[in-house]
Amino acid sequence: MQARTPSESKTILTDLVLPSETNPLNNLFGGELLARMDRAASIAARRHSRRIVVTASVNHVAFNKMIPLGTVVTVEAKVSRAFKSSMEIYIDVWIEDRESGICSKANEAIYTFVAVDEQGTPVPVPQLIPETDQEKERFNAALRRKQLSLVLAGKMKPNDATELKALFT
Ligand SMILES: CC(C)(COP(=O)(O)OP(=O)(O)OC[C@H]1O[C@@H](n2cnc3c(N)ncnc32)[C@H](O)[C@@H]1OP(=O)(O)O)[C@@H](O)C(=O)NCCC(=O)NCCS
């Protein structure tokens, strides 16, 4: 299977914040942003694997900035590492200043997707070759995050999480 680069899975979704998508403070509702990120991440995972993909886990979400009604929001998703059947997807969320047009980072998240066949059984995915410094940094830390996610889900014994343990020894 031919390895792919993160740029081959890069997915960008740009959309406005409409009144029906806000909380009582007139900022974007968190669940709406989660859905937008899930959509972008699933397209990135599909572009990398060219298979059916399902969300296995939301590993990390940081809602660092409020996103007011009317804001133009861009969700950018790329595969940050591929394992056997699972892929870590890193998502950066940008908001655009109306007058200057300058984009600033509002939030980020990390999702795990698994490629499956028509019966929902996991299938292998191509490996990922990171290119930029940021892609290499995200790639290198991804195994630690996978182990943490599996330990928290009760799918891995803490003792087997060698990469995680290495952080503390
Ligand atoms: C995700 C799913 C396919 C995993 O199936 P499974 O029987 O647990 O399969 P496995 O144990 O072989 O795991 C498959 C891969 O997922 C990874 N994985 C499973 N749970 C994970 C978690 N919580 N965090 C990170 N990775 C996870 C495994 O490590 C494995 O990765 P690898 O093949 O790259 O090493 C299955 O749980 C599923 O279909 N879940 C529902 C998905 C869904 O409907 N999502 C939308 C929710 S509304």
UniProtKB/TrEMBL annotation:
**Entry EC number(s):** 3.1.2.20
Protein name per its UniProtKB record: Acyl-CoA thioesterase
Output the Pfam families linked to this UniProt entry: 4HBT
Its source organism is Dokdonia ponticola
Q: Which SUPFAM superfamilies would you find in this protein's record?
A: Thioesterase/thiol ester dehydrase-isomerase
List the keywords (alphabetical).
Hydrolase
What family does the Swiss-Prot or TrEMBL record give for this protein?
Belongs to the acyl coenzyme A hydrolase family.
For this protein, the record's InterPro entries field holds:
Cytosol_ACT (IPR040170), HOTDOG_ACOT (IPR033120), HotDog_dom_sf (IPR029069), Thioestr_dom (IPR006683)
* CDD domains in UniProt: BFIT_BACH (cd03442)
MF terms (GO), sorted A to Z: fatty acyl-CoA hydrolase activity
Question: Where would I find the HotDog ACOT-type domain in this sequence?
Answer: 7-119
